[in-house]
Amino acid sequence: MSTGKLTTHVLDTAHGCPAANLQIDLWQVYSSSDRTHLKTVKTNADGRTESPLLLEDAFQPGIYELVFAVGDYFAGLDVPLDSPMFLDQIPLRFGIADADSHYHVPLLVSPWAYSTYRGS
């Protein structure tokens, strides 16, 4: 049994607060044209998910993708946005190599920019 986990955290840098109620889709990627949808979650008031996205036996080495619905999030805040939006869906594709490690994938986002890194 693996002891690792996958978590995420979304911060709204335009407003200086956690991005609450932002939808995130998690995919497992097998090739450039083959992937499986694993789950859809929303962030809580702290910009985090209520539980890890992957945990224990579900947390396996491989390629994964988190897709953050930032367009819907900012539209819900009545932020004036261009049409089409500059950023709508942000896909972050990353690899998990060690099933016994914690992989934390934070997203710092505004309607015009984003940044990510492997957190702790």
From TrEMBL:
Catalytic reaction(s) noted: 5-hydroxyisourate + H2O = 5-hydroxy-2-oxo-4-ureido-2,5-dihydro-1H-imidazole-5-carboxylate + H(+)
InterPro entries with a match to the protein in the record: Hydroxyisourate_hydrolase (IPR014306), Thyroxine_BS (IPR023418), Transthyretin/HIU_hydrolase_d (IPR023416), Transthyretin/HIU_hydrolase_sf (IPR036817)
GO biological process: purine nucleobase metabolic process
Start and end residues of each Transthyretin/hydroxyisourate hydrolase domain: 6-119
Gene Ontology MF: a single term: hydroxyisourate hydrolase activity
The UniProt record lists the keyword Ribonucleoprotein: no
Enzyme Commission number(s) of this protein: 3.5.2.17
Keyword line: Hydrolase, Purine metabolism
Family matches, as NCBIfam families: hdxy_isourate
Subunit structure: Homotetramer.
Family label: Belongs to the transthyretin family. 5-hydroxyisourate hydrolase subfamily.
Role noted for this protein: Catalyzes the hydrolysis of 5-hydroxyisourate (HIU) to 2-oxo-4-hydroxy-4-carboxy-5-ureidoimidazoline (OHCU).
Name of the protein in its database record: 5-hydroxyisourate hydrolase
Gene source species: Vasconcelosia minhoensis LEGE 07310
Gene name as annotated: uraH
